[in-house]
Amino acid sequence: MLHTLLALAALALAAPPRPGLQVVPFDRHTTYLIDPVSESCLLSLKGRGLGRVSCRALARNLPDAARHITWITLPRQEAAPVAVDADRWAVALVEQVERLAPHHYAIPRVLFEQALRAPNEVASRVRVLPVHDGEALAGLRLDAVRPGSPAYAVGLRDDDLLRAVNGQALRSASRAVELYRGLQGARRVELLLTRADTPVLLVWELR
Predict the structure, then answer these.
(1) Number of domains in the chain
(2) pLDDT single digits (tens) 66-100
(3) Which secondary structure element, helix H or strand E, spans residue 114, and what is its range?
(4) N or C: which end of the chain has fewer CB within 10 A?
(5) Is residue 59 part of a domain?
(6) Domain containing 108: what range?
(7) Count of CB atoms within 10 A of residue 65's CB?
């Protein structure tokens, strides 16, 4: 559930307490880097792997590559990480989600909230690839959505392109994270997708 946003949010929450940057390979073109000490940082750099570097080293050594980098800085998350058994969570979601109509699902609120509070434990089950239109973010492409998976159970499909959440377009990585955080306490979530060149409105009722 929420895998389209959780993969981004997982980089901003519950970073391990160790110095320097934690390197998180995303796909063969993109690497994310997290600063677990003071702030969480997200880096997307096409065509180059950086290894482990510090924020200062990054700023000092890559000024000429700025046009290829999407960089956002997020406030440090003060709340303690919430432990979630990812396997049990996945089984519970698949068993308890209810399909009300095509593209319309009822999801237990407690499972939804668990996913929001512990993205690290649940976000790795689906790959999310940023898609750009020029400099702007056009959406988030879903990859490796398998039948029987939590993402599949709530109506997401492989190669879906997420364009908007609750009517708000995903224009940047920072905006995607803002929208993710805004889902706390929601009763209904609407995802605007493009699927096989066709717009799809996926609705989740949280009960």
Answers:
(1) 1
(2) 434 444 444 444 444 456 677 888 889 999 999 99
(3) helix 109-117
(4) C
(5) no
(6) 81-206
(7) 13
pLDDT tens for 149-185 read 899 999 999 999 999 999 999 887 777 778 887 888 8
Tokens for 206, please give them.
């949280």
Separation of alpha carbons 97 and 77, rounded Å? 30
| Predicted pLDDT of residue 124 | 59
CA 81 to chain centre: 17
Whether residue 19 is contained in a domain is answered as: no
β strands within the chain, DSSP E: 22-27, 30-34, 40-45, 69-74, 98-101, 104-107, 127-133, 136-143, 161-165, 168-169, 188-195, 198-206
Q: Which of 32, 16, 22, 13 is nearest to 128 (CA)?
A: 32
Q: What CATH code is carried by the domain that includes residue 99?
A: 2.30.42.10
Which residues on adjacent β-strands are paired with residue 31? Answer: 25
Q: In DSSP terms, which residues pair with 79 in a beta bridge? A: none
State the DSSP code for 87.
Answer: H
Position of tokens 């981004």? 8
Q: Is residue 55 part of a domain?
A: no
